[in-house]
Amino acid sequence: KDHIFSSTLFQVSLLLGTIIRKVPLPTSDVSESGFQAVHETDLSNMTSGAMLDLKQLEVIGNHFLEVLLKMKHNGAIDKTRAGFTALCNRLLCSNDSRLCKLTESWMEQLMERTVAKGQTVDDLLRRSAGIPAAFIAFFLSEPQGTPKRLLPRALRWLIDVANKSLTDHTETNSFSADACNGFVEAKSPANFSEVAPDIYDAERISKIRDEGVVPTVHAFNVLKVAFNDTNLATDTSGFSAEALIISIRCFSSPHWEIRNSACLAYTALVRRMIGFLNVHKRASVRRAITGLEFFHRYPPLHSFLFNELKIATESLLDGSSEHLRSSMAKVVHPSLCPVLILLSRLKPSPIASEAGDPQDPFLFMPLIRKCSVQSNLRIRVFASRALTGLVSNEKLPLVLLNIASELPGAGEHVENSDVSLSSIRVNSSFNSLHGMLLQLNSLIDTNCRDLPDVSKKDNILAELIHILASRSCIGSPEQCPCPIINSCFLKVLDSMLSVARTCQMSKNIDVIWNLLWRLSSECLDLGVVCAPTYFDPTISELRKQAASSYFNCVYQTSKEVAEEYPLIPSGGPPSGSNLSKISVNEISFSRFQGRLIRSISDTSYEVRIATLKWFLLFLKSPEYNEIKRSCFTSVDLQTSVMNLLTLDNNHKCLNYILKIIYSWSQQEYHNNGEECADPKFFGDMGSESVLQFWDKVVSLYKVTRHSKTREMLLCCMGICIKQVASSLSISVVDLQNVKAGQFNPHDPSDPSKLSVFYECISYYVDLIEQHTDASEPVNMRRAAAESMIASGLLDQAEVIGPSVYNSQIPDSNFCSPFKQEKVVNMYAHKILDLWFSCITLLEDEDENLRRKLALDVQNCLTSKRSERSFVTGVVPIQVEQVIERSFKHLSSIFGHCLDYLDFLCRRVLGSANHACFISEGDLVKRVFDKEIDNHHEEKLLICQICCFHLEKLPASRFLLVEPCNVHEVKDFLQNWRRRFAQKLVLFAKDYVVAQGGADWIGGVGNHKDAFLPLYANLLAFYALSNCIFKGKPEDRKLMLPEVQEIGEAIQPFLSNPFLSNLFSLVVKLHDKMIGEGSCDFSQKIIDESAWDSFDPYFLLR
Question: Which residue of 41, 203, 231, 884 is most buried, as measured by CB atoms within 10 A?
């Protein structure tokens, strides 16, 4: 009932909005300069053409406002807002001052409702329900190009409402004295017992809040929607700084409702002021601005953020052991995180600010650096990110070297959180050391990477690695027993190596590589050499980072790096590098290969997943070097990967293993322009090994429930089928002239083996057909398309086409004993089924799937690979043309056999039956059927293509068989023709009965649910009749009863011109082939205005 009520309301709102936009409204002839007051009852100035008077307009506006304030249904609120916007816009554009004042009075009512007393949390329905929508309606209704009056007034009022809660909170002194200093003292157990009764009382009246809490939440929700609206971006920009200040201050509110709404408003403001952040690729952030530009655009924010940071950092201690306990007793200042997040969104400026500039972002530097000693890990991470937007390119070298110089050296000690060691030059704790490393990594990965001057970038790396090399003990687990710090030090070196690879002929690569290779190897062996007796998650994370850094030394595969730079190219290490002292073969084959095999089989999940991710990206890289050659020729590595399918139970690792196997098998590597002769993954596997792998993949598919893993299993089935289909095709072709019973048990064409091959292909084709259904998830349909192309079964049509027997009548029972002559046609039948599944996906609603699959199918339509030039850059043809060419390709191969005719007939019948099922289904259910929503699926097009090729099949060749089979072939053709006639007559009669004599405009034949089944069956009947007549049958007159029965059944539908013209062609065809006047009984029911040049295949022209 609520849903029906909401639907009714938003339909009424849409109707009222449409009326308001169209009908004339009252106008006034009074000049605005006269400032003359017009009495409400004075109608002398109103035009006679007005359809709605002032009272009616007021009633409509009150209705809109009431719906917005009482409804919580999003659809009703959205449609009501659209109608209310149209009403207010018409009134504000009017020259009648009374109409303009109506809008202002409604906004005053809305303000009064927003701050009404006695509101509880029940009034906060779903982000204040319709209150923000009502305000937005006022804002959007103001005419363009004129000064805004409602928006500035409302925004100023909303900010004051939000600010009032902070003022009241300060006056009542709700916080403790320590809250003014930026933190809240933790309650002791004694104090907790004292306040427990108050807490229980608060739970009983949890819906009652202090006066002003609910209005403040309403205000923030309106501000959030206003600043999120792109159409209001220019008009709201002047209030952004003040609103941001209020939202950050409200993070300190004791009420969760205010903090939550302030957080939402803060998010909208940051997105509007700085831009949307792409977390996967930071460089692609839109509308991002530098820190210098941001603070000059919003001057009040610099002093506010500086004061907030100063207050928040005053309580931060140095994090040493003597202060650790007291530091942990404090809660982080509420403003610290939002301020750091805001600063982290800024870009580094290419130039530094002028001396004495009060808006200089670099002034935040000491406060941000102080956050590095905080015991809270997230604060240290936020502080490191916030530092990047404050340091300009000019000051970057100085800041980096200063931070690096503060790191303790080899002869210095670091204070542990548990044991205080001897005094050192830099009084550092593990927290401060970790914070400095985080800041180094952020500055290198963001600021240094984006430097346009390559020589300056290389000089910074040279000075930095000189300092870090003397402090390499930080990255050694033996000398610095803190896995988190070891991992962070490896990240710094990894970032430096990645940046160095972007510098051409950099002299720092070998130094960084040597240090990173040594430390990452040491960290990787940590869990093997000195495994702790207890589980330490920090050690797992350290070994994960070590695995990533170690293999990045071999080849950089990070997605964030613009260019993939192989450190060890095929020609060997760079000249003059320390790598030249190490044999390339030693690195590539012995150390690298052994480490790779151990890492993918490591007991730690973190190490395995990091190694498998790197290995997958490495396999997909376009370069072909000595290390990649060693991977593809390593039998031990292939065996290890295969064994992991059984040994690794983690679904993510299993997914990556399957991706590696699939990528390994699919890629074609070229060396010096020629295809490499090295064996690929399945290139050297025998049929027994392939079948074993097939059984393993199928068994995993049956027990796996993770969708991504099932998708990759389906793709891996495709590469298995490629080998199986190749073996089966070769065996079938070789056995053309071999008599039954002369099989060699050692011959690959052994009947038992052929039976196994066929069962694999049959299972695979049925599985692909299942996953191409429109109800399947789009990712599974994409996997089915990719697996279909990888299987190579589509190409096998050309191989076995000439071997298909023409004298065999298609049989739907494939469970009969295996025979050589039957397996050829059964194999061809499965290939045709797969082709139709492919055609079904070519009509899929996913655009990327259609485009990619169409390009792959084009590659299968040409027999000679040398002629497939479109891959090299020729624009691919349209998907519809690919579908037509696919049928043409199949007709050229299988057009001589009855199996292909049976295939075409079944497809037409299937499309027609599907349409019949749709038309008979429940109307409510049909609305939610995914198949109906696919506008790219055109079943009539498929039916016309099938019938077109059905009509063109050479029926005379079907009869050129053994005399004993001629009669069976004729019966087969007549049975299909009779079957379509029966389907057509049955549907026509049932549909007329179901309609119950209802009169449709234009006739029942024009109903969409009736047209497709009737036209498809009638077209197939026409095409089969044409095909049979080409064979010159002797019993032509026996074909007339079906025509007469069809004519009587479809008589109510012949008001449709397509049906009437097609039936006219059927009648003319039988008159021509049987004799003039044989179908006179049908001429009476055909429209006399039949088209002379009607084409039954009108969608193909």
Answer: 884
Q: Do 404 and 468 form a contact (C-beta atoms < 8 A)?
A: yes
DSSP per-residue codes, 773-786: STTS-HHHHHHHHH
DSSP state of 28: -
Distances 436 to 342, 544, 898 between C-alpha atoms, Å: 20, 21, 77
User: What do you get for the CA distance between the two ends of the chain, in Å?
Assistant: 51
Mapped onto helix, strand or coil, the DSSP state of residue 171 is helix
Q: Are 115 and 170 in contact (CB under 8 A)?
A: no
Q: Which helix (H) or strand (E) holds 663?
A: helix 651-666
Look at residue 174 and give its three-state secondary structure.
coil
Quick: pLDDT tens for 970-1016. 888 888 999 999 999 999 888 888 876 666 666 777 777 788 899 99
The C-alpha atoms of residue 270 and residue 173 are separated, in whole angstroms, by 30
Question: Whole-model pTM?
Answer: 0.80
**Which tokens in the block code for residue 1098?**
């009108």
Q: Comparing C-alpha atoms, which of 684, 682, 508, 664 is closest to residue 600?
A: 664
| Tokens (6 digits) for 508 | 């720092």
Q: Which helix (H) or strand (E) holds 29?
A: none
Give the Cα separation of 843 and 603 in Å (integer): 46
Q: How many residues does the chain have?
A: 1101
Tell me how far apart the alpha carbons of residues 110 and 98 are, in angstroms, rounded to a whole number: 19
Q: What is the pLDDT of residues 547-599, one digit of tens each?
A: 999 999 888 875 544 333 344 433 334 443 333 333 344 454 567 888 889 99
Handedness of CA 381, 383, 386, 387 (dihedral sign): negative
Please give the Cα distance from 558 to 875 (Å, whole number): 31
Instruction: Tell which phi-psi region holds residue 873, choosing left (phi > 0), alpha (psi between -120 and 50) or beta.
Output: left
Strands, E, within 344-427: which ranges? none
Tell me the HSE value of 540 on the side-chain side, using a 13 A CA sphere. Answer: 11
Nearest Cα residue to 252 out of 266, 236, 233? 266
Report the alpha-carbon distance of residue 1056 to residue 666 in Å, rounded.
Answer: 52
**What is the residue whose two structure tokens read 């097609």?**
1062
Structure confidence by residue, pLDDT tens digits, 697-718? 999 999 999 999 999 999 999 9
Show the beta-strand stretches assigned E in 845-972. Answer: none
> Which two tokens mark 389?
């937007």
Name the 3-class secondary structure at 185: strand
Say if residues 93 and 109 touch (Cβ distance below 8 Å): no
CB 96 within 8 A of CB 27: yes
Q: What are phi and psi of 411, to 5 degrees?
A: -90, 10
Sign of CA dihedral 286, 287, 293, 299: negative
List the single range of 151-165, 906-920, 1027-1041 with lowest mean pLDDT: 906-920
- Residue 782 burial (10 A CB sphere; 0-12, 13-18, 19+): buried
DSSP class of 566? B
Token pair for residue 48?
A: 């006679």
Q: State how far the Cα of 509 lies from the Cα of 497, in Å rounded to an integer.
A: 6
How far apart CA 1026 and CA 884 sit, in angstroms, is 21
Among residues 277, 284, 280, the alpha carbon closest in space to that of 345 is found at 277
Summarize the chain as % helix, strand, coil (round to 5): 65, 0, 30
DSSP collapsed to 3 states, 889-905: HHHHHHCCCHHHHHHHH
Sign of CA dihedral 225, 230, 231, 236: positive
pLDDT single digits (tens) 1036-1047? 777 888 888 988
Q: How far apart are CA 894 and CA 886, in angstroms?
A: 12
Place of tokens 């025509």: 1043
Q: Tokens 């202002």 label which residue? A: 104
Residue 930: helix, strand or coil by DSSP?
coil
Q: Which of 901, 977, 916 is nearest to 946 (CA)?
A: 901
Backbone angles phi, psi at 555, to 5 degrees: -155, 125
